[in-house]
Amino acid sequence: MSDPQYKILLIDDEEVVLDSCVRMLRGSNYEVATANDGAKGVALAKEFHPDLIIVDLKMPGISGLEVLEQVHQFDPTIVSIMLTGYATVGSAVDAMKKGACDFLPKPITPDEFRLVVTRALERRRLILEAQALRREKELLREQFAAIVSHELKSPLGALQQNLFLLAEELSDKLTDEQRQRMERMKVRVTDLMKLIQTWLRLISTDISKIRDHFHPVALRDVVAKAIESVQNEATRKAIEILTEGADTPCRVNGDEGTLVQALVNLLNNAIKYSHSGTEIQLRVTEEDDKVAIAVSDSGVGIAPDELPHVFEDFYRAPSSAQGQQGAGLGLPLSRRIVEAHDGTISVTSEPGKGSTFVIRLPALKTSQGETL
Ligand code: ADP
Description:
CATH architecture of the largest domain: 2-Layer Sandwich
Oligomer: single chain
Radius of gyration: 28 Å
Number of strands: 12
Strand order of the largest sheet: 2-1-3-4-5
Helix content: 40-55%
Number of helices: 11
Order of helices and strands: EHEHEHEHEHHHEHEEHEEHHEE
Strand content: 15-25%
Bound molecules: adenosine-5'-diphosphate
Largest sheet: 5 strands, parallel
CATH class of the largest domain: Alpha Beta
């Protein structure tokens, strides 16, 4: 397989630097474009789709750092090299922070230039490879989930319906022991059905479709419905759900049903991974243009090295999941729902002390005189 032809965009206000860079790249299998100021460079980057941008730090108009910032807004995978006449540590550090993968002090020597370019393009190759792998994994996950849910959901639905009918028809003919077995079967089948439905919701296309029906949603309704749906389970474990700020006037642009589901998952986990007789705190707070819903428990907690994985599909943290039923799908589903609402979800936890999960959503501004 031949190497891909990489595209390089050179941005510098000094024609002589542009010319010498073009000359140094001659003979290599690169497609090269040039721009003599930052604004033109950004515009060209949008059309030319470069793999690598080599940009001068100090230019009239937009500086090299601003160019990188703007370019990374529409394509964070483009790699870049900062040219600097001011090879101070500070400017190099700034450049790296803005995403430049290397910097070159002027005057540039051909050997050094080619080396840095090769290194940057190798990095670009790795980024593209990782991106392709992620896409492939996502596609496989969607296909797998779609096939399995389809192949399982219909037959299981029929089984469930027949089982419920049979249980009703035989209700006065069964012995107590048979009735108990029948009840256990109903519970297991219902659990399995719920799991498959969660899978179906997990398929990202379903989640992205909900955006089409977004409308202002009162957060206090989301909170009330979520609490209502877990209340029985909390009572069964003698766990009290305490609220603060739950009568918030805040609204968000979204889909009420899925937002309730995202919060129910957090509350269910808080109950599941807490000891009987403890308390769960649900706190709603406004933070500038966002609203945060925090669910805190004083349960088993999660080990620090497991914490970064809890939002991954099928992940179950060994330190807390042991002995508890679950599929490792609740938190990834909550994450997808929250992200579809342009929000974030985060967690802090201390083993043996408890965990706090926080959903942050952009708050809708209440227009003057509007009542909720
Ligand atoms: P599960 O069905 O296993 O609960 P989730 O996706 O909801 O799946 O959660 C993933 C894992 O994160 C759980 O298996 C558990 O190990 C951990 N976890 C989630 N919430 C809590 C919590 N409140 N306290 C302790 N561990 C938790």
